[in-house]
Specification:
Layout (H helix, E strand, L loop, with lengths): L16 H7 L4 H14 L8 H9 L7 H10 L35 E4 L6 E4 L7 H6 L3 H10 L11 H4 L7 H21 L5 H17 L4 H24 L3 H18 L2 H17 L3 H15 L5 H17 L3 H16 L15 H14 L3 H14 L5 H17 L3 H14 L6 H16 L5 H4 L7
Antiparallel strand pairs: 1-2
Helix pairs in contact: 2-3, 2-4, 6-8, 6-9, 8-9, 8-10, 9-10, 10-11, 10-12, 11-12, 12-13, 12-14, 13-14, 14-15, 14-16, 15-16, 16-17, 16-18, 17-18, 18-19, 18-20, 19-20
Protein name: C1 regulatory protein
InterPro entries: TPR-like_helical_dom_sf (IPR011990)
């Protein structure tokens, strides 16, 4: 397959000349100090140094994590990330950015989504149904089918088979890029719309990805990328099953990712798989398993150099201890999570953790305190999570608003609970998540038990089967 000449050569970073110009006459060290000062001004701790500034200017960091984004936008009011020379976040929501080829900003095709107010439909500019990047990256064979499946546009699963279409086919860089793009795109859509509408198409995409793995690449570098990409895709599809309460399917996908990590000797993928297995075990009512999986994830992550990853994994362990009713062990794990979080971000932080900031920390703490029956503290943490969340994470805003509603109801604050529940229901106009819907049903049942009217809360919508 010939490469489109308008695209830069893969794996060759494009220097960020805009960011370099904004640094001006300051040395990289002086500019890094200014970044750290700006972070302190808004309560964001970033471990910026001259090396980080150099990597940004060299184009190795195509898009900063959310902590750095907030700091940069504070430093340069009125600018967007693309104004600062970065790539759009939707093009890097997957594997670590420095391992991926640069793709220029692309034109989105807008899809109508439900209007929460019930007045019709409104275009959602953040959803890329089929971008120029995807069309160019997936022009032939298995790559084209993989792209279509990631978007839910390919009806025939057999079309995704590169080996069936081309006997003797061996995947290369284009196919590895296709898998990585599928991971990014599925995660982006899930952040905004929830899992229910995505799961079936994503499952077909996963099967196509593993066919590429089985076909066998000629170069080890491509083999490594395919294993890592397919494993991350298995976790993403597992999460879609998890959020849709298809727990058996989710367990299978997470186990597939773990097996891929073990075969490839990839500790980062192993830590991610165990992280999600711990989360699933907690939600499925297996707290002992949640603790063990979280501890295994922490063992895999020790040599990865990411304090933020270890913080999240400590929270997964805390969730297991909360399910067991062990307040002391839960508190210790929460303390470790907070201490590790306070160490700040690092270049080693996995790209899939872009959701994990102060808001997510507060939300997961809320879930632990709620499981332990401390609903006042849980409501306080859930309220903080909702206030801090980036608007991009629509599903998580709905999730923690639902958590807040339930803890307010359990605390006897019925009017506040109904109001929060109503906000969560309105958010679900654009989010399809069985898990959140059932949380709200449980809150409605709690309000009914107290004689509180819930008609406005439920909005007349049917309960899920």
């Amino acid at each position: 397959m010939s490469r489109d000449p308008s695209f830069p050569v893969p794996n060759r970073p494009v220097p960020n000349t805009v960011f370099r110009a904004l640094r001006g006459a300051r040395s990289p060290g002086e500019f890094a100090a200014a970044v750290r000062r700006a972070g302190r001004e808004i309560g964001e701790r970033v471990s910026c140094d001259a090396r980080y500034v150099g990597r940004v200017e060299a184009g190795e960091i195509r898009c900063p994590n959310y902590a750095y984004e907030r700091v940069f936008l504070h430093m340069f009011p009125g600018y967007t990330l693309t104004d600062l020379g970065f790539a759009p976040r939707e093009t890097v929501r997957g594997r670590r950015a420095h391992a991926l080829p640069y793709a220029p900003p692309h034109k989105a095709v807008r899809r109508p989504v439900p209007d929460p107010a019930g007045t019709g439909t409104t275009p959602d500019p953040s959803v890329d149904e089929e971008s120029d990047v995807l069309r160019r990256a997936f022009m032939t064979g298995g790559s084209a089918a993989l792209a279509g499946l990631a978007l839910g546009t390919t009806a025939d699963p057999a079309a995704a088979s590169p080996t069936a279409a081309s006997p003797g086919f061996r995947p290369g860089t284009d196919e590895a890029e296709a898998v990585e793009e599928a991971v990014r795109h599925i995660r982006l859509l899930d952040d905004r719309h929830g899992a229910d509408a995505l799961y079936e198409g994503a499952g077909r995409t996963l099967r196509a990805a593993y066919e590429l793995v089985d076909a066998g690449a000629r170069r080890q570098s491509v083999t490594d990328r395919l294993h890592a990409g397919a494993g991350e895709l298995a976790i993403s599809v597992g999460w879609l099953a998890h959020d849709s309460r298809r727990y058996t399917d989710a367990r299978s996908h997470y186990a597939e990712a773990l097996a891929t990590a073990r075969v490839a000797g990839d500790p980062a993928l192993e830590a991610h798989a165990f992280c999600n297995m711990a989360f699933l075990a907690r939600d499925a009512g297996r707290p002992h398993e949640a603790v063990r999986a979280a501890q295994a994830a922490q063992a895999a992550a020790r040599r990865l150099g990411s304090a933020r990853l270890r913080s999240l994994l400590a929270l997964r362990e805390a969730g297991g201890w909360a399910g067991l009713g062990d307040r002391r062990a839960c508190g210790e794990a929460l303390g470790r999570a907070a201490d590790l979080f306070a160490l700040g971000t690092a270049d080693a932080d996995p790209a899939w953790m872009s959701f994990y900031g102060e808001a997510e920390l507060a939300g997961l703490e809320a879930q632990c305190w709620s499981a332990l029956g401390d609903h006042e503290r849980a409501a306080d943490r859930a309220r903080r999570a909702v206030a801090l969340l980036d608007p991009h994470f629509t599903r998580n805003i709905a999730l923690f608003t639902a958590q807040l509603a339930d803890d307010l109801a359990a605390s006897g604050k019925l009017d506040e609970a109904a109001a929060a529940g109503g906000r969560a229901v309105r958010l679900l106009g654009g989010v399809k998540s069985t898990r959140i819907r059932r949380m709200l049903d449980a809150t409605a049942d709690r309000l009914r038990a107290h004689g509180s009217p819930v008609d406005a809360f439920l909005g007349g919508e049917p309960r899920p089967a």
